[in-house]
TrEMBL record:
It comes from Mucilaginibacter mali. InterPro entries: MraZ, MraZ_C, MraZ_dom, MraZ_N, MraZ_sf, SpoVT-AbrB_dom, SpoVT-AbrB_sf. Forms oligomers. The keyword Transferase does not apply. Keywords: Cytoplasm, DNA-binding, Repeat, Transcription, Transcription regulation. This is Transcriptional regulator MraZ. One of its GO terms (cellular component) is cytoplasm. It is found in: Cytoplasm, Nucleoid. CDD domains: MraZ_C, MraZ_N.
């Protein structure tokens, strides 16, 4: 399993190609040469997963009762536009238009993109959307940490 750390600023070219920073490529399986999965994020962003991590996400989705309407809606919305992306010889990945539209990323305006590593996935943000999200930082981070991390069952502890 790969873990990702750091925030990286980069540019998207007019063909919607994103050059992965070398420091990030070193953290990726195969040093950034293996296929990745990209999907809609829960905010105005995109999520990049390794193939192994994506397989885990799909396994969780398959546990949902697909006859329940709310589950159908979630699966449909979450997987809409999900795409395998493969780095080219120059280390660039193509961001699908449907996903760029979701995240407010316009390749024609030479957007600055923020890649924000979140341990097991990488968030892709248009810079101003990322700044707006960061502006909503919790007033008391210590209290949030206590609520989230204190005395609660966490992933793998069950």
């Amino acid at each position: 399993m790969s873990y990702f750390f750091g925030d990286y600023s980069c540019k998207l070219d007019v063909k919607s190609r994103l050059t992965l920073p070398s420091a990030l490529k070193q953290q990726l399986p195969g040093e950034g040469k293996e296929p990745l999965m990209i999907a809609r994020g829960f905010d105005k962003n995109l999520l990049i997963y390794t193939k192994i991590e994506w397989d885990g996400v799909i396994a969780e989705l398959l546990k949902l009762n697909q006859y329940e309407r709310e589950n159908q809606q979630f699966i449909r919305h979450f997987t809409r536009g999900a795409t395998m992306i493969e780095p080219d010889g120059a280390g660039r990945v193509l961001l699908p238009k449907i996903l760029c539209d979701h995240a407010g990323i316009d390749p024609q305006s030479a957007n600055e993109i923020i890649l924000s590593c979140q341990i097991n996935k990488i968030e892709v943000w248009e810079k101003s959307a990322h700044e707006a999200m960061l502006a909503n930082e919790p007033a008391d981070f210590a209290a949030l940490a206590e609520r989230v991390m204190g005395n609660k069952a966490r992933r793998g502890d069950e």
